[in-house]
Specification:
The protein is of the alpha+beta class. It has a domain at 46-136: Beta-Lactamase (2-Layer Sandwich). It has helices spanning 10-20, 32-43, 68-80, 84-91, 99-105, 107-116, and strands at 49-54, 60-65, 95-98, 121-128, 132-136. Strands 2-1-5-4-3 form a five-stranded antiparallel β-sheet, with helices on both faces.
Length: 137
């Protein structure tokens, strides 16, 4: 609960949905980040979510996605080594990228994204300490 209003925050909502997600196929600890991505989609006004971990400035490892489309978009950033997630991690700030922005800033990623997925916009936000980043599609 948050402060005086007694209303749940988005993080409270996310925690509650994450805890309630009891898919038997997502039960193992190795799939915790998949559950988290699925919970993000249920709580936030987004259609997909991917989670990656940065182990160095340019080494990014996709570790969870809410669905196959989010996983594909996540993987494309990894294979092209460019995209909103890299910039969010580098700058430490939120990146909101519509299709024209993606085309201008990350042309190789854009070409593959539009030819291989229905994704036309990405919001990327670092989660903390520059070690990980979450994307919402």
């Amino acid at each position: 609960m948050s402060g005086r209003t007694g209303q749940m925050s988005k993080s409270d909502d996310l925690h509650a949905v994450f805890s309630a997600l009891r898919d038997p196929q997502l039960g193992g600890s190795e799939l915790v980040l998949v559950r988290l991505a699925k919970a993000c989609v249920r709580v936030l006004p987004i259609t997909g979510a991917g989670i990656s971990i940065f182990t160095a400035a340019t080494l990014r490892i996709p570790v969870g996605a809410s669905d196959d489309v989010a996983a594909a978009a996540e993987s494309l950033q990894f294979s092209t080594a460019q995209g909103p997630c890299f910039d969010a991690q580098r700058t430490g700030g939120l990146i909101v990228a519509t299709e024209p922005v993606i085309a201008r800033r990350w042309p190789v990623f854009h070409d593959r994204l539009i030819s291989q997925t229905p994704v036309r916009g990405v919001v990327a936000a670092p989660l903390g300490d520059g070690l990980s980043s979450k994307e919402n599609y």
